[in-house]
Specification:
- The protein is mainly alpha-helical.
- The chain folds into two domains: about 190 residues, no CATH class; about 50 residues, no CATH class.
Length: about 260
């Protein structure tokens, strides 16, 4: 999940985002795979060990456990989800975990960095860090944008995904310190949505009439307002304080510094 533009005029930026995002989503990734659903136990153990309850990530710890991380990534790379042998939730959980695990791998490969954006600067959806094609899964090669915008968003159409995939930055929703699983997926997606909206460092809901929200709700507003649902309606499903229908909403600056657990 990335910030799309910086100083481009708003109208031009909007057109650029629409065209590039649509082009990205228009790609298809049909892989002739006979794989069966995989277990995410290795990833679950790594997350429990190296991610705090508040979402701080011990990237140095992941580096020390690189053999286990690489084993998990190989498991993902050898087993591409398919509709024949995988349920919807098994595919969904796989792609969330894949996005997060490969993001951690990318950061550890270039560690230390102040921000994931320092790994590669460029034009969004063209040549930024999220456009590095380093993810190989059976017969397909992906970048992180492919997974988020060409697979997860269009295939599963669940706005809670924005609180599940982690972009390795302070303002991102926290990296959940457990693997997503098919059996618990709906519960876990509700959990991360509620946790994100309750986190006062990422969303500030001062009263029913006023809120400062994460820019995620601005960048991906269309995902949160499908089927004629107002943004406030979505917020009120998960926020600790309900907003009035005409509440004043502004958006907080996004902190792209690395979401690293601070050593004491």
């Amino acid at each position: 999940m990335q910030k799309i533009f910086h100083s481009i005029p708003l109208f031009v930026a909007g057109v650029f985002l629409l065209l590039t995002a649509n082009a990205c989503i228009g790609q298809t990734y049909d892989v002739a795979s006979n794989s069966k659903p995989v277990t995410h136990e290795i990833w679950d153990a790594l997350l429990k060990k190296h991610v705090s309850a508040k979402g701080g990530v011990d990237y140095q710890g992941f580096i020390l456990d690189s053999i286990k991380l690489n084993n998990y990534l190989k498991l993902l790379s050898d087993n591409h989800p398919n509709a024949k042998g995988w349920s919807r939730n098994e595919q969904f959980a796989y792609w969330i975990n894949a996005y997060n695990a490969f993001t951690v791998k990318l950061v550890t490969k270039h560690y230390p960095v102040k921000s994931i954006k320092d790994i590669k600067k460029g034009i969004p959806f063209v040549n930024t860090v999220w456009d590095i094609k380093f993810i190989k899964i059976e017969g397909a090669t992906y970048d992180l944008n492919n997974i988020e915008h060409s697979i997860i968003r269009p295939m599963f159409k669940d706005p809670r995904i924005h609180f599940a995939v982690n972009c390795a930055s302070v303002s991102c929703p926290n990296l959940l310190n457990e693997a997503f699983t098919a059996k618990r997926l709906d519960e876990q997606l509700d959990k991360v949505a509620r946790s994100f909206l309750a986190d006062k460092s990422k969303n500030k809901i001062a009263s029913a009439s006023k809120a400062q929200l994460s820019k995620i709700f601005s960048w991906y507003k269309g995902d949160f307002t499908e089927k004629d649902q107002a943004l406030v309606d979505f917020i009120n499903k998960y926020a600790p304080l309900k907003l009035d229908a005409k509440a004043e909403i502004t958006y907080l600056d996004y902190d792209w510094n690395l979401n690293e657990e601070k050593k004491k």
